[in-house]
Write a structure and sequence with these properties.
single chain; eight-stranded antiparallel barrel; 158 residues; globular; alpha+beta; Lipocalin
Amino acid sequence: MIRMSLFLALLATPLAAQDSLETLRKKMSLGNLMTEDDFRAMAEGNTITYNNMGEDLYMEYYRPGTNRVVIEWITPSADGQINCDTGIWYAEAETICFDWSRSGKVCSVWVDFQGEYISELVIDGLRRGNIETISNISPTPLYCEVGLVSLPAPQVAG
């Protein structure tokens, strides 16, 4: 649902932003398709910030040793409300899919273009043009605790 909303927002981008979109499309076509192992190596234990046309949109934390993920995003509103959801990720054919507790299944094709990670939304087996990049990868966990949605902090052995 989140990525679908971002796709609709992308359709309304000004013409100047389309040049950047064309560059991203070219990188998508030239990049190496990421496998499940490639995606796990990039994501596991990290908080990843997703970006669309220069604007950071949301962050996802990939819990180490699992396929669990938590997402945090800020509602585009005056109050800047923070929203959270949890889910799991998995590979399906050439895509990486997310099954979110609140918004359901979302799949994307991922490529590695010279160390730049880029994804494109896939709906009903077709690429839909919503292309996002990763602007930051951090080992700092994300504990989104707005409402009742959160992943518990890992237990520290001691």
